[in-house]
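Narrative of activities, Objective 1.

The group set out to show that a structural description can be obtained from nothing but a protein's sequence at a throughput compatible with the screening campaign. Below is one input-output pair from the validation batch, recorded exactly as produced.
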Amino acid sequence: MASIPQRVSDRFRETLPKFQKILASAQARDINEADTVTIVSDILAETFGFDKFIELTGEFAIRNTYCDLAVKLDGKVQYLIEVKAVGLDLKENHLRQAIDYGANQGIPWVVLTNGVVWQVYRILFEKPINYEKVCSINMLEMNSRKAEDQEKLFIFSREGITKSAREEYLERVQIVNRYMIAAVILSEDFVDDIRRELRRISPGLKVDADEIEGILRNEIIKRDILEGDDAQRAKSRVKRVTRTQKKEQQTAVATEE
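Output recorded for this entry:
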């Protein structure tokens, strides 16, 4: 992930404790949504580094209504932000509202927050529209001096956008997960590696790839990791990369010949 500039790191350390106190007080008083929007705007400006008067707007119209906040850089919307009252738990219907806003405007990045919990999602413009969670933070649980927590804060920040931090973090989320690892294990090349290793351990052993794959699927890898959209996307990506690599190898061999 892109390195965090020192001034941004310092800003996180200086402002986060202030807003943790503000948010804790707001939760205790159970303030309404409008007041929560005010706090969120201040966090976006003071902690995440956006210009409150130029880069934040609450006047972004979507189908005769307005999203709570939009973040713009160089005239382009970078985030649509749906804000709920600080005392509300974020739920599926809240997320669906935010996703619908982004899908209707062709804006792929949306944030759902109640001030305390911040969730960033990437919309997948498929049929039907889908989405994936990139990152979630709880402001009251963050430690602004921990590198891991600063990395997550950086994703939401102005500087993080300009350094493609959210895209890099999304790439890591897409690759380093149980679905992708399962897809790699079941890939043709990996199964062949297992087959060769078994034959090295027991020379002359007769075992085929289908038998190994069957054991992996039925006895080693949990079924829920092999099913669903996430599993299918991981499988497709591994196959796509494998095909590309084989074509490149064939081209290299043909060129040498």
